[in-house]
Amino acid sequence: MKKLTLFLGILLSFHFCYAQQFEFTPNYDESKVPQFKITNPLISFNGRKIKNTKRWEKVRRPELLNFFANNVYGKVPGELEISKWEVVEENANALNGKAHRKQVDIVFNKDGKTLFFNILMYLPNNKEKAPLFLGYNFYGNHAVCQDVKIRIPDTWARNNESYGISNNQFTEKSRGVRKDSWQVEKIIDSGYGLATIYYGEIDPDNNDFYNGIHPFFYVDGQQRPAANEWGAIAAWAWGLSRAMDYLEQDSDVDATKVIVFGHSRLGKTALWAGATDERFAGVISNNSGCGGAALSKRQYGETVGRINNAFPHWFARNFISYNKNEKALPIDQHGLLALIAPRPLYVASAEDDRWADPRGEFLAAYYATSVYELYGKKGIPSEEMPQVNQPLINTVAYHIRTGGHDVTAFDWEQYIKWADEQVVKNF
Predict the structure, then answer these.
(1) How do beta strands 253-263 and 345-350 pair?
(2) Most exposed: 15, 39, 96, 294, by fewest CB within 10 Å?
(3) CATH number at residue 369
(4) What parts of the sequence cross the membrane (predicted)?
């Protein structure tokens, strides 16, 4: 009897997993994209037309921000200021004398709990105050550059044998493994600084809610965020804002020219950080896909149901109500992109990254353009996508390049050019 029960349990488990896999099988056929209506970002939920920036800022922007906060990413349930910060290492002759390297600990204390994250910074030595790219990394600060002085995080890490990560711990083997994706010297040579943080120091990327920033806000025995409270993406966005708190008082940084950058799930994070914190002068979304720049209602590549099933900790639990129900969304991701207006926005895709739906990312930028035009800013002029490797550089910029889900030297070349034209000179 026990053997039969065990067999039936295994069979049911297999059937459930197979059913879930079948249920969320990605669509890569444009002819199977469902018919859907694009919600006008300039018409409020009660049908009022938004005809000027004053009404956008007073009526439409707040209601869109509130919708995404309550139903997609989750609300931050309180405030917590930096308890202290400390420069734990610096060198004014890094990168063969080109840069000033700093490693800064940002510390938070509350009710006997302590959390800290470390900001790795490279600043060009030929500028008194540098504009800056700020972004999270996936594999530790030490992975972005072949620099033996960068500290190795001791926080939980997702195992990756090819990068020398085992037993959920970083090792010396992972030093510099992602340097090609960060192009530190290219950034420095272009007159920009770089600040990066290992995202797992704010909230480890696993579904437990016990060992990151979330418990600092729990009340009355709470063990996970409420249905409308922050998931991991909102927590990571919160961390970027706390990094901005520090950067505003760093005399080596031009805090009016900080551009928040992110790739993949961290591209989703950069968009939400840019929407919620208007201090960021520009926002870059690299291959951010579902829950990022891509239109959810297209149901192409990764879908709302698939992402909530695979990564239930990333979003607010309220977002589950749109699993296989994208048509019920009162606004799509173009509404998120519109929240960044009038600040410069760059959305980037890759030709082989169909999972992230490049066309859906492009269309979201196109449909957000009407809000930018209220401010006299130029966005995406038509629904026709640009050719591969032919960037469209305006206040709202877009490119699709050859290759797959990654950040490349080509991407950084475009981001720097766009930052020169749209953030540093014109904004």
Answers:
(1) unpaired
(2) 96
(3) 3.40.50.1820
(4) none
